[in-house]
Design a protein that fits this description.
Helices cover 43% and strands 20% of the residues. With 338 residues, the chain is α+β, with helices and mostly antiparallel strands. It folds into two domains: 83 residues; 231 residues, BirA Bifunctional Protein, domain 2. The strands form two sheets. It has a seven-stranded mixed β-sheet with strand order 1-5-6-10-9-8-7, with helices on both faces. A three-stranded antiparallel β-sheet has the order 2-4-3. Helix 1 packs parallel to helix 4 and helix 5 packs across helix 11. Bound molecules: 3,4-dihydroxyphenylalanine (DAH). The site of 3,4-dihydroxyphenylalanine has 11 residues, from strand 9 and strand 10. 3,4-dihydroxyphenylalanine binds next to strand 9 and strand 10.
Length: 338
Amino acid sequence: MIDKIKEHINKVNLFKTVDPKEINSFRIKYLGKKGLLNKFFKFFKDVSGKEKKSFGRELNLLKKAVNEKIKTLQALAESFDEASTDLDLHRPGYHSGIGSRHPLSIVKNRIVSIFSQIGFNLSEGPEIEDDWHNFTALNLPEHHPARDMQDTFFLRKNPDILLRTHTSSVQVRYMENNSPPIRILSPGRVFRNESISARSHCIFHQVEGLYINTQVSFADMKQTLLYFTEALFGKSKIRFRPSYFPFTEPSAEVDIYWGLETETDYRITKGTGWLEIMGCGMVDPNVLSNCGIDSKKYSGYAFGMGIERIAMLLYQINDIRTFFENDIRFLKQFSSTV
Ligand code: DAH
């Protein structure tokens, strides 16, 4: 009989399950009223005197083994149950969305890459400017009426410190510190005290270009800008309309022929087929001398364009505010490798 008990101790030790039902039948089998342990205890009374001691010891070992086994299996079953509600190896992984580039960055990068192919280098300047770099050096002395063309956010008056109203200020900084030949492209954020609407914003982005060398002509500028519009828009018909900027003489506005194929073409070109995309001109000799460049020896051209405007044309976006709201549903529509 002792051997039988030992056999059960072995069995109990080897028993394994996480199924609560099986644990319960195991418990009933050993600890139930009609269970094995009760049977053995009943038998204990009839065991002969000399065997009683070792029989009793084995019986207690079995009881202990059964109780411990039930405890461990129940704990195991519980934790397995908790884990299994979470652990589904067939479930697809959690999707953590990959960001996309902002449309303004995409357009800016494209513009930069087009000009860098013909030798333009990047040059950036500060967003907080002084009066000299934003206005005076660019042939816009105090009280010049053209200052009203751009409503300015002033940070301090006398001496004037302001948020730059255009990236043309970077031209001045670069010319002051470098000598020709100069071929730079300056993208950046600009600020104007304007009310916000679908068409205009108080913060926007520009790209400024500047080329200074000996014998630079208006024809050079036309050719460069034609190369650019072909590369960016795939449109090869452009026109130069006479215009006025204090820092260039002569000045022009560049229009591209967009076409009149769709209803949208009619709407955005106001029925003309033409779209204005930038300002440009031959750098005024006054600006060259203000920046310490010999205007008798050197000449050059400059141009400036709004990145939002170009992005709106390329992506057919009709509200400038969408660029700044950072609505993820808007942003995730853009993807790019640049
Ligand atoms: N600074 C002008 C603006 O903000 C844009 C511009 C026009 C820049 C003509 C130029 C230029 O360099 O030559 O409206």
